[in-house]
Amino acid sequence: MKIEIPYGRTVLSADIPDERVGAVLNNRLHDYEPPAAADVLVEQALASPIDSPPLCELAKGKKNVVILASDHTRPVPSKAIMPAMLREIRRFNPQVKITILIATGCHRESTREELVHKFGREICEQETIAIHDCLKDSMVDYGVLPSGAPLSVNRIGAQADLLVAEGFIEPHFFAGFSGGRKSVLPGICAASTVYANHSSHMIDSPGAHSGCLQGNRIHEDMVEGARRVGLSFIVNVVCNGSKETVAAFAGDFEQAHLAGVSFLNGLCRMQVEEEAGIVITGNGGFPLDQNIYQAVKGISTADIICRRGGVIIMAAASVDGHGGDEFYHTFTSGKNADEILQDILNVPQDETRPDQWQSQILARAMVRHPVILISTQPHELVQKMGIIPADDISQAIGMADELLGRKEKIVVIPDGVGCIPALKET
């Protein structure tokens, strides 16, 4: 069998004997054909909102409307979503003040060029756009969330008399799914709120993994945060592997999000008969496999179905290197994965460090499995992190066989970010 893993802007391929392939888990969303143009799907969603009055009705009589928008790191088709939302808000309220607040979370500020690419020049020149800064902006406190995290939210969003959001939904490696409530938390929260929500005991909770919302404490905190701030309405989309919009969901921030999740579940969730001795996966190619930091997402997916002691093979081009100094130094400190994990688990919630959650998830996988990384990075850099470097898939399989002392079944997950694997219940 010939397998192919997206890798940077190209594809890695290898031939594997049929008898060794336990399963190939392909995300059915990847090649899903759009039923209509993105703007048409958005207009249809706005015309039939889920568990909510239409956006134009919600905006009646309002003086200060804030639209939360994803930043440059998310492939949200804002050119299709934002004009439709602006028209709806102004339909019965043409003089309303509207602010587009970029929900950066803890990311860097979006540049002017990135905003023009995202929204188009007309919106950037004619609308009021503010960019959230989790460290510098004035915040409003909303008490303490169920996890014990303090809830502090950007004052611009907090003072809106109608707060709405755009976004997109995909599997998320510890929040279950992106979209919906994430526009508020982490989108427009203070760093202290985000770090506490991503703290070691939250990441370590049983439900904090891809495709899981029920019993996911991180998700529950996010929902409570969005409720308290008063997120009233969302327009969220689902995109295929070519970043084309294939579905849109508008309405109540909880129910519209759940409708999108249900749609995704039918395309991304798949089962295997038993745990695998070897799992080969990738991060879906560029731009999601630009560094080792991002590759943790695909590794966490493989971790779900790889038996303890089995080998994870990750193909991530990582042309930008390790992806973060704090992250890199954590794994080059001279400590092994178990020591790193224990150190992180001992960090109090209010002392959570930047990128700690990513290090925790990688260390957890490395405690359970040898991890082999196929990348463009020097072998020495990869080895310093406690990861085994390889040049191609065939070489990596040979290394895995040597580590295991035998040839075991292989499960292949070409897109580890967009797939939600699970063991079949017996």
From TrEMBL:
Domain LarA-like N-terminal per the UniProt entry, residue ranges: 7-210
Domain Lactate racemase C-terminal: 274-420
InterPro entries tied to this protein: LarA-like, LarA-like_C, LarA-like_N, LarA_C, Ni_dep_LarA
Pfam families: Lar_N, LarA_C
Transmembrane segment boundaries: none
PANTHER family named in the record: LAR_N DOMAIN-CONTAINING PROTEIN, LARA-LIKE N-TERMINAL DOMAIN-CONTAINING PROTEIN
Name of the protein in question: Nickel-dependent lactate racemase
Phylogenetic placement of the source organism: Bacteria, Bacillati, Bacillota, Clostridia, Lachnospirales
